[in-house]
Amino acid sequence: MKIPILEKIMFDEPSIWVTATTVMTLIATVYLSIHEMIGNHLQYSKFTNSKPVQKQGIKVSSKTGMLILYTPAFLAGVVTFFLLPGGDLRFFLLKFAVTFHFFKRDLEVLFVHKYSGDMVLGSIIIISGFYFSAAVGLIGVHYLTLGLPEPSIDLKYIGLTIFIVGILGNFYHHSLLSKLRKNNEKEYKIPRGGLFNLVICPHYLFEIIIFVGITCISQTPVAFACTFGDSMYLIARSYATRKWYENKFEDFPKHVKCVIPYVF
Known about the structure:
Layout: H1 4-9, H2 16-37, H3 53-56, E1 59-61, H4 62-83, H5 89-111, E2 118-120, H6 121-145, H7 156-178, H8 202-218, H9 221-248
Antiparallel strand pairs: 1-2
Helix pairs in contact: 2-9, 4-5, 4-6, 5-6, 5-7, 5-8, 7-8, 8-9
């Protein structure tokens, strides 16, 4: 049974294999989200030591780990400009948005973030694999839709606007996080300023907005699946983050939500 509104805003999937990819993306990301909700966290950031030492696995420095997270996806985006040239404006905007997002994250790793510990290699591989697969899948699947009838409702310019808002908001709140600690400080502090006064993870909120923008540019089912899955994971992660801050700081403000101001 087809849903009329979805027919108006999404491309038809070009093959059964693409449909299978969409379904598997949803299953994998929902699985990770459930694990975050029940406390089985991927081992990075403040949750690096949430498992017993013997179960943590090989560790690398946070800076190196973060670069491994984003660089393969960034390079995949760059390569698509050469392997998949041509196409229409929508396809160019999609390649640009995906590539720029991960390029920005690499720049933040190198020049913005401050680090307090290590990352577990197993978690790095899982997250890096997801981001790489998302970059390749978003661009590759859209390439297969070239020549198919366009959705009757065109969202690419709205998507570009949403994407820019997400990029700016994400960068701003990462900058605020980096300013919490002075040189050589390792201790966590309660973030202040911007939307940190309303939610503990506004950087996650704006990352969700980034993916919403990419989805609106692409308008493919696999893009919707990536955004839904990423959103569920980041919402689950923000819930765990808020619980962590509540347990660590007695003065944590009760009105500060997880990721959606005034709601959750």
